[in-house]
Amino acid sequence: MTTRYVALLRAINLGATRRVSMPRLREVLTARGHGAVRTHLASGNVLLESDMSEAELAADLSNAIDEDFPLDVPVVVRTADEPAHVLAADPLGRLATDHARHSVTFSPSRRIPTG
Q1: What are phi and psi of 32, to 5 degrees?
Q2: CA distance 35 to 108
Q3: How far is residue 50's CA from residue 80's CA, in Å, rounded to a whole number?
Q4: With 114 labelled, which of 4, 5, 37, 90 sits at a CA distance of 20 to 30 A?
């Protein structure tokens, strides 16, 4: 079953030595069989569709980056629903008045309930 995922590539495009071209990354991931691959600026945030599980996809993306760029990049993968759930829940709503300044971090091993 194809699932829509968000992949967060950690510590890329920081400084001159950890550069990953987003157009090239889209080409590499598409060639590996992932669909509807989109990147956001040079942030290391990727939207894509895959038949792999989250763990398999994280490993595949990490391997692809190592092979093509070559960099050891930690990858966190979540279903596209999970970040949307966090935004909808607005956990800092009562504490923060400027929602544009919210920062959310996803840990590789922590699951976020969506139901």
Answers
A1: -85, 5
A2: 22
A3: 12
A4: 37
- The pTM score is 0.80
User: Which residues, at least 6 apart from 72, have a Cβ–Cβ distance to it below 8 Å?
Assistant: 62, 66
> Between 3.30.450.20, 3.30.70.1280, 3.40.50.2000, 1.10.287.600, what CATH number should domain 3-90 receive?
3.30.70.1280
What tens-digit pLDDT sequence spans the chain (115 residues)? 899 999 999 888 877 888 889 999 999 999 999 999 999 888 888 999 999 999 999 999 999 999 999 998 889 999 988 877 877 777 767 776 776 666 667 777 655 555 5
- The kind and range of the H/E element at 81 are helix 81-89
For residues 20 and 64, give the distance between their C-alpha atoms in angstroms, rounded to a whole number.
Answer: 11
